[in-house]
Design a protein that fits this description.
It is built from 13 helices and 17 strands. The strands form five sheets. Strands 13-14-15-17-16 form a five-stranded mixed beta barrel. By secondary structure, it is α/β, with parallel strands linked by helices. Bound molecules: S-adenosyl-L-homocysteine and iron/sulfur cluster.
């Protein structure tokens, strides 16, 4: 989501005539796109913003903008300006479309600095310019915001209520991306399964996927989406994925915890049995489906027994990979005032969780050995000269010999060797 928002920021700047530079000393404008999902993301942002102070001193015309969800926390905009008076523009995620106007105002000396209430204007703005940087894949927002209020999570507070884009607008953008030659499109939303809930016209995620699947043969392409919420995914969605050629056999289904007690405290609205039932349904309909997840440890009240439930579900489901996090207190959320788990306990648990998941990933990788899989080549391998990398339909990363001409092509690759999460092979002639 943040990467795509950065593409919209860059699109606005490109529209104004700016070009990209990798050297901050050369820059006429620097925009920090922040995230406040966890404390370390905020710390990174603050450190990076602080580091441009000297640039601004030696180049007073440099415009510094801070945008993104960090500025949308209670009073954060005002506090940022106090801490870093050199910031010229502060915007949130909901009014990013104002960036161009703000830059022009500063360039034309109409204002010295601008702080627009980051929480205003949660309307959907269509047709923002986008400067895409993601190679073969294009990101496509289908909705914004979130209504779920998981008790650990800051997103609903900073990004506002769920707003779905009109189906026709999404389909127009989707088709235009295929026409532009993108080989992969990833649909984005905090909970894509509740797409349409505010549209009042019966449109929902299954219908959207049905329309997307109608374009299966329009070009050769792949479709992915993230994130799914276990409380809202249903059989219609699973059936459409199973039947569509373009929609990948790859589902990101964040579980967060394997303990019913913790899931309830997190306000997730599902139990471990319900989650396991969905996994069963997916595996029956799509036997090779790559299932990935997000898991958190150290949530308030988590005891060893709860953590053991998490390890158990990791073993049972067989996630092809998992994003693992230590719970981080977010001011203003319900969990922030619950009794906290000591840091050293969380640290120990995250290490044990990663070890368990690595073993699962390694075992699943082994099942690929000897098989031939269609791979979309995404890039040259930055670590190994003469090699390229790409992904299988199920989302697994594959490395094999090849050159840049292959980028964007679909090739059949025989897997010869596997190493934890990575697969190695060669093109099958
Ligand atoms: N909307 C998506 C995820 C958004 S945030 C979903 O519900 O799946 C991505 C992940 O960050 C979450 O799945 C969760 O595992 C993690 N996360 C969110 N808030 C967190 C917090 N306060 N501390 C640690 N991890 C957190
Ligand atoms: Fe946060 Fe839960 Fe919404 Fe995901 S579904 S963004 S974790 S509140």
């Amino acid at each position: 989501m943040n990467i795509h928002e950065s593409e919209k920021i860059a699109g606005t700047l490109e529209y104004l005539g700016y070009t990209e530079t990798k050297d901050s000393k050369e820059a006429d404008i620097i925009v920090f796109n922040t995230c406040c999902i966890r404390d370390n993301a905020e710390k990174h942002a603050l450190g990076n913003i602080g580091a441009v102070k000297h640039l601004k001193k030696s180049k007073p015309d440099l415009i510094v903008a801070v945008v993104g969800c960090m500025t949308q926390q209670d009073m954060a905009g005002v506090q940022l300006k106090e801490k870093f008076p050199f910031i010229d523009i502060i915007l949130g995620t909901n009014n990013l479309d104002k960036l161009g106007e703000c830059v022009l105002d500063i360039v034309n000396n109409r204002h010295k600095s601008i702080l627009i209430d980051p929480n205003e204007n949660p309307a959907i703005v269509e047709h923002q310019p986008v400067y895409r940087t993601s190679g073969t894949n294009a990101w496509l927002n289908i909705m914004y915001g979130c209504n779920n209020f998981c008790t650990y999570c800051i997103v609903p507070y900073v990004r506002g209520r769920e707003r779905s884009r009109k189906m026709s607008d999404i389909m127009d953008e989707f088709k235009s991306l295929l026409d532009q030659g993108y080989q992969e499109i990833t649909l984005l939303g905090q909970n894509v399964n509740s797409y349409g809930s505010n549209l009042d016209n019966g449109d929902n995620f299954a219908r959207l996927l049905e329309n997307i699947a109608k374009l299966d043969d329009y070009t050769k392409h792949r479709v992915r989406f993230m994130s799914s919420h276990p409380k809202d995914i249903n059989m219609d969605i699973i059936d459409i994925i199973a039947d569509s050629k373009s929609i990948c056999n790859n589902i990101h289904l964040p579980i967060q915890s394997g303990s019913d007690k913790i899931l309830q405290l997190m306000n997730r609205h599902y139990t471990r049995d319900h989650y396991l039932q969905i996994i069963d349904d997916i595996k029956k309909k799509i036997p090779d489906c790559g299932i990935t997840t997000d898991i958190m440890v150290g949530f308030p009240y988590e005891e060893e027994e709860d953590f053991q439930d998490t390890l158990d579900i990791v073993r049972r489901v067989g996630f092809s990979s998992a994003f693992t996090f230590v719970y981080s207190i977010r001011r203003g959320t319900k969990a922030a005032v619950m009794p906290q788990v000591p840091a050293e306990v969380s640290k120990d648990r995250i290490q044990r969780l990663i070890k368990e998941q690595n073993a699962v990933t390694k075992a699943i990788s082994k099942t690929y050995e000897g098989g031939v899989f269609e791979v979309l080549v995404e890039d040259i391998n930055p670590k190994k000269e003469g090699f390229v990398c790409g992904r299988t339909d199920t989302g697994r990363l594959v490395n094999f010999q090849g050159n840049a001409d292959l980028i964007g092509k679909f090739v059949d690759v025989k897997i010869e060797k596997t190493q934890s999460a990575s697969l190695f092979g060669s093109i099958k002639e």
